[in-house]
Write a structure and sequence with these properties.
This protein has 454 residues and is α+β, with helices and mostly antiparallel strands. The N terminus is likely disordered. A hairpin with a 6-residue loop joins strand 2 and strand 3. It has 16 helices and twelve strands. The strands form four sheets. A five-stranded antiparallel beta sheet has the order 1-2-3-7-6, sandwiched between helices. A three-stranded antiparallel beta sheet has the order 8-10-11.
Length: 454
């Protein structure tokens, strides 16, 4: 990892692995046989791979259509369709940052990690994970299930007023299955678990996460931005709050040291695709996947739902629409995520305990009392990480469209100030918001969010 003279990660050298006087890291090496794919090249690539070609049906290659649809900063994404087929998505990681070009090289390992994470998630939760058909390391290509329209990204649906009741329960199921089934609680043995954790290390992306979530929002950093001048004083307060700094330091330590389960690593409402008609939900884009603290993914989802909740006042003001139904739905979704996750997680845990007992394993059983204690601690972790995510989305490098798209700066800042207020409380002491002995899930969190609206 490269560090600049200011003592923080040099993002460009961190992500790229390029030679830098400050970082001293080696230049990126492109694998032998690698080539950039364009639309015609993608069709040829599919035709040359029997598994992929079979998905296109019997239609001749000349009838296939291929469109590049990637709208992100990093990868190229192609949708290939043929008459009578379901189509295929082909995703290629180029050895550079897409939005910059070849002047900013970028490690190709990110595609391997994403494909590996998707396969792990699909193995335990196929109903909410797109299937990976082919991963080609030499070409840094992943071919996967095409989530056809009307599948669309959840984020915009939610902040524009859609209220899909199935979303919270689906997210809870995805979290419970992917987190529990990849944890030590479900693992056959400690050696197997340690091996998986090591194989799924994601050092570069984790270092980036450490910087943009756990460090920069609390210091003067060139990457930081916020609604100015409305939030200038609020941002300054973050840099002076000693108790807040202690809280974020504890969360950062947990993030770095706790290899509890395989996580998506960047789970938010933009990481889910929904089909409102058929009520399906899929989690996508786990480029930041790593073995880390369970509460990180849970907190990430909860934070985004709360940010969307607070944004509704701003949207109500600028559009004149009544958003009370959306606010009610979003708070219910927060509860549905935690309540659904926790009950399903414990159910899976008890099933695994019964399997161990039936197999005669040398194993100390987990009592109900221990499970309750475990879940209370996990809840506190999740809420702490939720707070960290909320803070970074207001003053850090990456913001949410839920708020960013509100053009009235005063209306936006009012919403953002509520996000910051709750985020700071959660980072400083999540148990001050939801006490350890609280048996009502996250009801107190929902009440705290409602109270901040005034």
């Amino acid at each position: 990892v490269g560090w600049n003279n200011g003592g923080v990660v040099d993002m460009k050298s961190l992500l790229s692995g390029t030679t830098s006087e400050a970082a001293g890291t080696p230049a990126l090496v492109v694998p032998a046989g690698y080539r950039d794919l364009d639309e015609q090249g993608v069709k040829q690539y599919i035709a040359e791979h029997p598994r992929l070609a079979s998905l296109m049906g019997k239609a001749p290659v000349e009838s296939w259509t291929c469109h590049e649809v990637g709208d992100g900063n990093i990868n190229f994404v192609y949708i290939v369709e043929a008459p009578g087929s379901h189509g295929v998505v082909v995703k290629q990681a180029r050895p550079y940052v897409r939005c910059v070009g070849e002047s900013w090289p970028l490690t190709l390992n990110r595609m391997r990690r994403e494909a590996s994470a998707l396969r792990e998630e699909f193995a335990v939760c196929p109903e909410h994970t797109p299937e990976v058909y082919v991963y080609d390391e030499k070409m840094s290509v992943m071919a996967m299930q095409y989530l056809r329209p009307p599948h669309t990204i959840a984020r915009k649906l939610l902040y524009t007023g859609s209220t899909p009741d199935f979303f919270g329960p689906h997210v809870a199921e995805f979290l419970a299955k992917t987190i529990f089934m990849t944890s030590r609680l479900a693992s056959a043995n400690d050696e197997a678990f340690r091996k998986l954790a090591s194989e799924n290390a994601n050092t570069e992306m984790c270092a980036l996460t450490e910087q943009v979530i756990f460090t920069e929002p609390y210091i003067v950093a060139s990457n930081n931005r916020w609604t100015t001048p409305q939030l200038d004083a609020d941002a300054a307060e973050l840099r002076e709050d000693v108790a807040l700094h202690a809280g974020i330091a504890a969360l950062k330590r947990k993030f770095v040291e706790a290899n509890e389960a395989l996580l998506h690593g960047d789970l938010h409402t933009g990481s889910f695709m929904l089909d409102l008609e058929h009520q399906t939900t899929y989690a996508i884009d786990p480029e930041f996947a790593f073995y880390g603290p369970m509460g990180f993914d849970i907190g990430a989802v909860i934070s985004n739902l709360l940010i969307c909740f607070f944004s509704q006042d701003g949207w109500e003001q600028v559009t004149g629409e009544d958003r009370s139904k959306s606010r009610e739905f979003l708070l219910e979704a927060v509860k549905a995520v935690w309540d659904g996750f926790s009950s399903r997680f414990v159910e899976l845990w008890k099933q695994r305990e019964a399997e161990r007992k039936a197999a005669g394993e040398a194993h100390v059983p987990a009592s109900d009392a221990y499970m309750r204690k475990y879940m209370r601690e996990l809840r506190a972790d999740a809420l702490g990480f939720s707070g960290a995510k909320m803070v970074r989305r207001i003053v850090g490098i990456a913001h949410n469209a839920d708020l960013e798209e509100i053009q009235d700066a005063d209306a936006r800042a009012k919403c953002e100030r509520c996000v910051l207020a709750l985020g700071r409380r959660l980072v400083t002491n999540a148990r001050d918001v939801v006490a350890d002995d609280d048996e009502n899930g996250v009801d107190a969190l929902v009440a705290a969010a409602s109270a901040l609206r005034g």
